[in-house]
Amino acid sequence: MKKITFLSLIASAALAGCVTTSDDSTSLTDIDFNDLTCEQIETTFTEYKENIDSSDTYTGLVGIVSSEAEASANTAKAQAMDMYNQAKEKAQPVIEFKNCDINI
């Protein structure tokens, strides 16, 4: 049981690391999109979404180890998607104001 709990913690930590936006782990919702170029905004959202999507692989692997770990991984992914959607709402007016030709 201790082994499964330990593996669950490691797997959850690995998944959480997959949904960070940069080396300093700045929250996507804390970014001031006014300070970014259109290309930087697009790159930020694209990379973040790719990290979330790649977490499906980790979730599947974690599910082999423990259903509890899989549930934790799914919760982490849901939270990451919530953050993505909040940031998207925050960035949309900036994207429109700057006339960015991007779709996030």
Characterise the protein shown here.
- This protein is 73% helix and 0% strand.
- It is mostly helical.
- It has one domain (2-17, 37-97).
- Helix 1 runs parallel beside helix 3 (67-97).
- It is elongated, with a radius of gyration of 16 Å.
- This is Lipoprotein.
- It comes from Psychromonas aquatilis.
Which labels suit this protein?
signal; single chain; mainly alpha; 3 helices; Lipoprotein; 104 residues
Compact overview of the structure:
The chain has 3 helices and no strands. It is mainly α and 104 residues long.
Quantity of strands, as a count: 0
Radius of gyration: 16 Å
**Count of separate DSSP helical elements:** 3
Cα shape:
elongated
The profile of the biggest β sheet is: none
Q: What is the succession of H and E elements?
A: HHH
How much β-strand is present in the residues?
under 5%
Number of domains: 1
| Overall pLDDT metric | 81
Q: Helix coverage percent of residues? A: over 70%
Poorly predicted runs: 14-23
N-to-C CA distance: 42 Å
Which secondary-structure class do the elements indicate? mainly alpha
